[in-house]
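REQUEST FORM: STRUCTURE PREDICTION
Request ID: SP-0412
Submitted by: Lab K.M.
Chain count: 1
Length (residues): 202
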Amino acid sequence: MWLPLVLHVPPDSRAPVCCQHVGGPTGKTQYHRLVDSLTGDERIVRGPLVYAPEPLEHLVNGTEEALMINAQASVIVENRSSGILRLVREPGLFYPSPYEFVLGWRYSFLVEEQLYAVVKNELNGSTSVHEGPTLLMLDAYEQLVRMSRKVVVRKDEYLRLVDRRTGAERVVHGPTTVAPAAEVPVVYHFLCIVPLLEWCAA
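STATUS: Completed
RESULT:
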């Protein structure tokens, strides 16, 4: 009597080794970060979804939540592959791309009408002046240097500003308010014109 030949077929090494579940009834804002232990490649899987990881993939950081961005709140994100920072300002749910990690939140703040803000870009060293009233959101590489009160130039007055670094000079006539350039100190000269042609300097 012949018996049937039974061959043992090893499992396909390419078949999924397990299944992970992203999200659930309230899991629409969740995601998984998967890293290939051999190549270091990353991918992001958004929920809700049932998926099968690749054989060498492993889950890092567990189940994470997407972040809600709005006009007052943004996030600073670092790309761990390139080291570049960026500020995410687009309103709505934010899911990071592969290799991106959230460093922290950035919140907008009010620069009032009588004030101005001096901001420095730490990447290229440049400075900028933002006059109030405005709602200011600093970029990823920007830092607030100071908030100062605008200089008021009244009617029949003018203001002479001299850049001590370059010697460049400009004259501003009143009535107006001035937010002096921030990158170098400036010299102020106030000349008050009165009916008897008297003048005073400060």
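NOTES: The CA atoms of residues 29 and 66 lie 5 Å apart.
Reviewed by: T.R.
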